[in-house]
Design brief:
By secondary structure, the chain is of the alpha+beta class. About 50% of the residues lie in helices and about 15% in strands.
């Protein structure tokens, strides 16, 4: 079955195909049916669905059966369109956020010929074979949306300011968690259970769960004060911004709709901005960038003044650095390290301005161990094995990507994962080295900052003297073997 929007689009395409097959202009069809040219145009674009009398008039004028126009069968020429619509990807993607009409996309595909149709079918087949689900498209669309806006949203900044004024929150930071807790309880009728998840061992990895029927917020008792405060901030965002389509878990386990994914992102933005006010943080970062030497402890001290988690701190930097410092070429990565298995998983990434070299892969390849994101996690693990407790460690590295001109100042914080046990987490913000960046960050020339050549994954890296290599460069070797085969074939062809 197809929905009403898809039905309008399909009907319009059938009318258009029949009209064009008979070389009829809009004026010709209008004369035969008594339907205005503008209304016919709206029908073919999938914006209007005519009433029964007009459908009969169209069928008669086009010399087709009324049942053919109303059928949900797509026919040979529209088969790729049908496959795309039934996949539901096109219908669920937030095309309107990017100023794109779904009917226009369908029209382009329908009129592009058999080759484009075959290409679309191939993409859909690949998505099925590799288990690419709708939620993957939602998260991909969200990243594109954030990148389009340089991850800064005036409307949310204004709502945070309006909220602070209306509920009369103090200027000082950090915010007391109990203050936000009382707001939820007294103003929005929440019941908050500080150890509410303890009775559900299977939910131990989650930080919170909201039960809408009872307006209960169940918290993980292992949360730190700032983690509790951050969860309260998200719940306040859902209520203040009236975001109804939402997830009820602290992190998105799966995206049911794009609206849910987007609202989750907006709630996170709101809470981060609430805890790290724009004006104050900008002043502190300006002073930090004026230092002649990289000072990791000073960097951590800024974060600690807000009692923020590394994720909150770096999230806020990705909001503010592009907008107010002109640092638009940046990336953000978060890695989770399982020390027992020595597996590194990238579970969050953001790229602004372009797709930067360090990015996730779903091919089970080994990320380059020279990335500061990974090397700092291994350093943290070594400290833990030596019996040294390290809550947070920080380092800077200038990473030059092999065989390119691209280099990045990478700032990384690594910490134990909580509440999830036996894992560590690192977050990294990478700023591409440009002439503009040099003028804004004085410590870029600090000789104390480690400089390293890096690559994407070990499988794709041609470096022959890498002590950190986790596996052989099998993809490089395959390419080299193919190159040798092709060269030898050329010789034989003589």
């Amino acid at each position: 079955m197809i929905n009403k929007i898809q039905q309008r689009i399909l009907f319009g395409l059938k009318v258009k195909q029949s009209r064009q097959a008979q070389s009829l202009s809009f004026a010709d069809l209008a004369g035969r049916t008594g339907i205005s040219v503008s209304y016919l145009n709206e029908i073919e674009k999938g914006k209007k669905y005519p009433k029964e009398d007009k459908i009969q008039a169209l069928a008669h004028a086009l010399g087709v059966q009324e049942s053919d126009l109303l059928s949900q069968e797509f026919g040979e020429g529209l088969a790729p369109v049908g496959e795309l619509l039934r996949s539901n990807f096109l219908n669920e993607l937030p095309l309107d956020l990017f100023g794109i009409e779904m009917s226009k996309v369908v029209e382009i595909i329908a009129s592009a010929g058999a080759r484009v149709g075959a290409f679309i079918s191939t993409l859909l087949e690949l998505s099925r074979n590799y288990a690419v689900k709708e939620e993957n498209f939602y998260f991909g669309a969200l990243r594109s949306y954030l990148e389009l806006h340089n991850n800064y949203f005036d409307d949310l900044e204004q709502e945070v300011d309006r909220f602070i004024r209306q509920v009369q929150l103090p200027v000082e930071r950090p915010l007391p968690p109990d203050l936000l807790k009382r707001l939820l309880e007294e103003r929005w009728g929440y019941t908050i259970l500080d150890n509410g998840l303890d009775a559900y061992p299977d939910l131990a990895p989650l930080r919170s769960v909201f039960v809408p029927k009872r307006k209960e917020l169940l918290l993980n008792s292992k949360l730190s004060a700032i983690q509790r405060s951050f969860q309260f901030g998200k719940e306040l965002a859902f209520q203040w911004l009236q975001l109804r389509d939402r997830a009820y878990t602290s992190s998105l386990l799966r995206g049911r709709t794009f609206e849910e994914v987007l609202n989750h992102s907006r709630a996170i933005y709101f809470s981060v901005a609430l805890h790290l006010p724009q004006k104050q943080l900008l002043e502190e970062m300006e002073a930090f960038f004026r230092n002649d030497r990289w000072d990791g402890e000073a960097f951590l001290l800024i974060m600690k003044r807000y009692d923020a988690t590394p994720e909150m701190f770096f999230h806020r930097l990705t909001n503010l650095l592009p907008r107010f410092f002109g640092m638009k070429k940046l990336f953000f990565l978060r890695f989770v390290h399982d020390p027992e298995k020595d597996i590194f998983e990238m579970d969050k990434e953001l790229h602004l301005n372009q797709k930067h070299h360090p990015h996730g892969n779903r091919l089970n390849e080994h990320y380059c161990r020279r990335w500061i994101s990974l090397s700092l996690l291994r350093e943290l693990r070594a400290l833990q094995q030596g019996g040294v407790f390290a809550d947070r460690i920080v380092k800077a590295q200038i990473s030059h990507y092999l065989h390119t001109e691209d280099a990045y100042l990478c700032l990384t914080i690594a910490r134990p994962s909580y509440p999830a046990p036996n894992k560590n987490v690192s977050v990294t913000i990478g700023l591409q080295l440009t002439d503009g960046l040099q003028s804004k960050i004085r410590f870029l020339d600090d000789p104390g900052i480690l400089r390293r050549e890096v690559h994407t994954t070990c499988e794709r890296c041609p470096l022959s003297d890498c002590a950190e290599r986790a596996c052989p460069p099998v993809i490089v070797e395959k390419k080299q073997q193919m190159h040798r085969i092709l060269e030898k074939l050329k010789e034989l062809e003589g």
